Amino acid sequence: MAEDLTPAYTVPGIEREAAGRLIGLLRTRLHALNDLHLTLKHVHWNVVGPQFIAVHEMIDPQVDRVREMADDVAERMTALGGVAQGTPGVLVAERTWEDYSVGRADAIAHLGALDLVYTGVIEDVRAAVKVAGDIDPATEDLLIEQLRDLEQFQWFVRAHLESAGGTLATSGARTEEEAAARGGRIG
Question: Where is this region: Disordered (predicted)?
Answer without folding.
Answer: 168-187
